[in-house]
Amino acid sequence: MTLKELQEYIRNRDYRPELEHAYFQKLIEEVGELSEVLRKGKRMETEDTIKGTIEEELYDVLYYVVALANLNDVDLEKSFHLKEAINQHKYGR
Ligand SMILES: [Mg+2]
């Protein structure tokens, strides 16, 4: 799945402009949860144990980043390439 396809997938299931502030609050909440599982080093061990793991919280953060991009009509793939070009120049990588 490409970034563009991921945006499309989430846009088709969850696109509610009136909830932008709530999406942002959820993103911050999920970043906090990610911080906790990173600190505890909680990794997914089998396919059915994603709850409370780094894998789950990275998904949650990504979900709300993409949802917010969609509400603001941001093409994340395009943003990635534009910002990557700046970083390549800035950091020489
Ligand atoms: Mg979570």
From TrEMBL:
It comes from the Bacteria. PANTHER family: NUCLEOTIDE PYROPHOSPHOHYDROLASE, REGULATORY PROTEIN FOR BETA-LACTAMASE. This is NTP pyrophosphohydrolase MazG-like domain-containing protein. Pfam families: MazG. InterPro entries: MazG-like_dom. Residues 21-86 form the NTP pyrophosphohydrolase MazG-like domain. Gene3D superfamilies: MazG-like. SUPFAM superfamilies: all-alpha NTP pyrophosphatases.
